[in-house]
């Protein structure tokens, strides 16, 4: 089975699409795809998110579109039904870990403590999202756990931006970073799609 890092390939940013409407999701996805990025995450945080994910996949067959903010097994099933290419969770439960592990698409479980890492690892995961990265200890935390969990790598998300992303990416146990800074709410509200494309281009 493909792992999350294999799916990302050389891409080191996982850009997050927060869409209040399907049209908004499509516009954001187009702006991101125009930059050359190949993998995006639609967070399931609005009534339109699942439909937006479906529509993005239809309009951009070349994009790999993951579902984020998957909180439980019901949301997981909805994300899979919508065609999610991978699954990202902000946190873990034993049931969610087992269900994500059983999926045919890669999963990136969200952890924030050494106990979370141990539980996710026990369920067969070696690639995890650190969330919320800046509040969960950020770079010092990632350095501290690197010698303990030597077979685990992370995609930190939450508080990552254009200024600190390279510091995270310089760590050997970081495979990529996720964030919303490349699709800021005010740009979306103003329809300034080129700003999203430019911000995404800046990380390539
Ligand atoms: C996530 O879902 O991973 C976070 O909401 C992203 O956090 P950010 O807005 O600080 O990038």
From TrEMBL:
<comment type="similarity">
    <text>Belongs to the KHG/KDPG aldolase family.</text>
</comment>
<keyword id="KW-0456">Lyase</keyword>
<dbReference type="InterPro" id="IPR000887">
    <property type="entry name" value="Aldlse_KDPG_KHG"/>
</dbReference>
<keyword id="KW-0119">Carbohydrate metabolism</keyword>
<comment type="subunit">
    <text>Homotrimer.</text>
</comment>
<protein>
    <submittedName>
        <fullName>Bifunctional 4-hydroxy-2-oxoglutarate aldolase/2-dehydro-3-deoxy-phosphogluconate aldolase</fullName>
        <ecNumber>4.1.2.14</ecNumber>
        <ecNumber>4.1.3.16</ecNumber>
    </submittedName>
</protein>
<dbReference type="InterPro" id="IPR031338">
    <property type="entry name" value="KDPG/KHG_AS_2"/>
</dbReference>
<dbReference type="GO" id="GO:0008700">
    <property type="term" value="F:(R,S)-4-hydroxy-2-oxoglutarate aldolase activity"/>
</dbReference>
<dbReference type="InterPro" id="IPR013785">
    <property type="entry name" value="Aldolase_TIM"/>
</dbReference>
<dbReference type="Pfam" id="PF01081">
    <property type="entry name" value="Aldolase"/>
</dbReference>
<comment type="pathway">
    <text>Carbohydrate acid metabolism.</text>
</comment>
<dbReference type="GO" id="GO:0008675">
    <property type="term" value="F:2-dehydro-3-deoxy-phosphogluconate aldolase activity"/>
</dbReference>
């Amino acid at each position: 089975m493909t792992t999350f890092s294999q799916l990302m390939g050389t891409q080191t940013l996982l850009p997050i699409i927060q869409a209040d409407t399907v049209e908004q999701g499509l516009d954001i996805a187009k702006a991101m795809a125009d930059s050359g990025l190949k993998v995006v995450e639609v967070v399931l945080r609005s009534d339109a998110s699942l439909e937006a994910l479906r529509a993005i996949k239809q309009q951009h067959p070349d994009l790999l579109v993951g579902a984020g903010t998957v909180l439980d097994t019901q949301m997981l099933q909805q994300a899979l039904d919508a065609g999610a290419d991978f699954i990202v969770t902000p946190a873990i439960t034993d049931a969610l870990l087992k269900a994500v592990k059983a999926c045919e698409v890669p999963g990136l479980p969200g952890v924030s403590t050494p106990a979370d890492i141990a539980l996710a690892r026990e369920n067969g995961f070696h690639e995890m999202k650190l969330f919320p990265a800046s509040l969960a200890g950020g770079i010092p935390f990632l350095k501290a756990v690197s010698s303990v969990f030597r077979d685990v790598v992370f995609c930190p998300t939450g508080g990552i931006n254009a200024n600190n992303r390279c510091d995270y990416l310089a760590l050997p146990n970081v495979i990529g970073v996720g964030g919303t800074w490349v699709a800021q709410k005010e740009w979306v509200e103003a329809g300034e799609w080129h700003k999203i494309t430019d911000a995404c281009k800046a990380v390539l």
